[in-house]
């Protein structure tokens, strides 16, 4: 630095070479983790900062304070932080900045769109200096032209996630909802389909503990669903209660974000993510290539005749059904749920994950008429669809014996069987993808949307 008073403010490149020294540093916040308690009862959070001297991968800043209120409350990635009297250390072979609660201090400023030099948060020990303004102005000017290229190898698409594994996701925040008092859920999307899961429940569980249609306690309104993309999984993301007040104000619908260290799990055969104190958040610019890749995948799928078919059903669904209406355009189940007509017909590729009643001898009423409910899923949604009367006769090809109906049911629901055709107890089920025709209808004249139901029609289960 040219001015004598400025010598302690180092560029990141120079700070990295100053191991075990106390110094001051300024940088742009690339990402930040959520506050958490340490084993020593302190509170901590982790930031990653960059400047023009060290753009990739940045340097981590580990902040330790006596309580949550004294941690940096960052409004957005891209904001600027001044750190005074911090130590440069090495941890697991990597150089990092350590903020000590006894002698370090900080100030937070708006990023490239900031119009003044007033910090929006300042720690008690931080001393504002007139010469700090030129450093802030310099970083703001640099950020106007800066574009971060991280590569895609560190990020997973939703079609690549695995149960029990923490991943980094680049995704669009579609909706944030308080699903119960002080319980929040985010709905995210990247245009790809999550992998189909094995169904762990027994067939008979559907009587008293049916598979959920969704993970939220109440279904989303049709108005909200109509704002969602019609292709690609909408992943439900649970926000850990301990971090809600630190992250909710940062989650804005209709924005693209990078969520680092998201735990992926399955409940009732439905995927969900969990934001924990170890999750980190970044916003994405409209020029980010990951965003463009997601949008390109979505646009390509919409342009294809078969683009609404589940990714996991390609090159074609299993040949266990034949349908009478081959010319109806394929639709996803979210297309079905959000269609503007109460009564309509659809051609879908789905899995049947549950049936009620589940025993073949109960598929028909005492009067000999089919009446059963199937739970259908594709990557976008789950619904109940009924097999009723003549449509059931078509579906099961008449009224075959109980043994034949059982065999058809097992094929439809992915029930594992031995070589001699007997069911394997406690085995997970893997239902095949099948094509079927659906029709929607209402059952109450004065409540056409609230009473809307779905039936399978014009579909025959083969074999």
Keywords:
463 residues, alpha+beta, OB fold (Dihydrolipoamide Acetyltransferase, E2P), 3 domains, 15-stranded mixed sheet, five-stranded antiparallel sheet, 8 helices, 22 strands, 35% strand, elongated, disordered N terminus
Q: What overall geometry do the principal axes of the alpha carbons give?
A: elongated
Work out the number of β strands. 22
Main sheet overview = 15 strands, mixed
Structural class call reads alpha+beta
Give the CATH architecture of the largest domain: Beta Barrel
CATH topology of the largest domain: OB fold (Dihydrolipoamide Acetyltransferase, E2P)
Which CATH top level class of the largest domain fits? Mainly Beta
Query: What is the oligomer described by this structure?
Result: single chain
Percent in strands:
25-35%
Helix content: 10-25%
Q: Can you identify the CATH superfamily of the largest domain? A: Nucleic acid-binding proteins
Q: Spell out the helices and strands N to C.
A: EHEEEEEEEEHEEHEHEEEHEHEEEHHEEE
First and last CA, distance = 80 Å
Mean model confidence by pLDDT: 91
- The total number of structural domains is 3
Note poorly predicted spans: 1-7
Number of helices: 8
User: Roughly how many Å is the radius of gyration?
Assistant: 28 Å
Keywords: Chromosome, DNA-binding, Telomere
Domain Telomeric single stranded DNA binding POT1/Cdc13: 9-144
InterPro entries: NA-bd_OB-fold, POT1, POT1A/B-like_OB, Telomer_end-bd_POT1/Cdc13
GO molecular function, one term: G-rich strand telomeric DNA binding
């Amino acid at each position: 630095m040219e001015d004598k008073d400025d010598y302690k403010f180092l560029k990141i490149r120079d700070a990295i070479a100053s191991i075990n020294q106390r110094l001051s540093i300024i940088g742009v916040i690339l990402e930040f983790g959520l506050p958490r308690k340490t084993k020593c009862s302190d509170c901590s959070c982790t930031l990653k900062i960059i400047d023009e001297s060290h753009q990739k991968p940045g340097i981590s800043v580990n902040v330790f304070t006596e309580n949550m209120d004294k941690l940096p409350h960052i409004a957005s990635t891209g904001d600027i932080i001044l750190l005074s009297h911090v130590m440069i250390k090495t941890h697991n072979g990597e150089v990092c900045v350590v903020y000590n609660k006894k002698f370090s201090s900080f100030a937070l400023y708006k990023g490239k769109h900031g119009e003044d030099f007033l910090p929006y948060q300042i720690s008690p020990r931080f001393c504002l200096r007139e010469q700090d303004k030129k450093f802030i102005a310099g970083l703001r000017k640099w950020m106007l032209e800066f574009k971060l290229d991280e590569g895609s190898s560190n990020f997973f698409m939703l079609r690549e996630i695995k149960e029990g594994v923490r991943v980094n996701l680049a995704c669009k925040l579609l909706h944030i909802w308080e699903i119960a008092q002080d319980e929040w859920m985010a709905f995210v999307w990247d245009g790809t389909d999550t992998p189909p899961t094995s169904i762990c429940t027994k067939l008979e569980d559907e009587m008293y503990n049916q598979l959920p249609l969704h993970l939220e306690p109440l279904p989303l309104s049709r108005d909200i669903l109509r704002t969602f993309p019609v292709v690609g999984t909408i992943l439900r993301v649970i926000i850990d209660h301990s971090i809600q007040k630190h992250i909710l104000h940062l989650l804005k619908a209709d924005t693209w974000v990078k969520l680092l260290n998201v735990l992926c799990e399955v409940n009732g055969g439905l995927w969900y993510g969990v934001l924990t104190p170890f999750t980190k958040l970044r916003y994405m610019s409209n020029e980010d290539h990951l965003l463009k890749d997601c949008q390109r995948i979505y646009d390509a799928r919409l342009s294809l005749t078969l683009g609404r078919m589940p990714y996991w059903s390609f090159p074609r669904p299993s040949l266990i059904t034949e349908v009478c209406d081959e010319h109806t355009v394929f639709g996803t189940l979210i297309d079905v749920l959000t269609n503007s007509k109460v009564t309509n017909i659809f051609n879908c590729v789905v899995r049947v994950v549950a049936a009620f009643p589940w025993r073949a001898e109960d598929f028909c009423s005492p009067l000999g008429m089919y009446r059963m409910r199937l739970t259908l899923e594709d990557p976008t949604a789950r619904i109940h669809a009924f097999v009723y009367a003549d449509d059931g006769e078509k579906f099961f090809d008449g009224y075959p014996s109980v043994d034949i109906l059982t065999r058809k049911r097992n094929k439809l629901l992915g029930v594992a069987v031995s070589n001699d055709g007997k069911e394997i107890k406690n085995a997970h089920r893997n239902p095949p993808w099948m094509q079927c025709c659906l029709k929607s209808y209402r059952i109450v004249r004065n409540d056409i949307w609230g009473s809307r139901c779905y039936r399978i029609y014009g579909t025959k289960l083969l074999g």
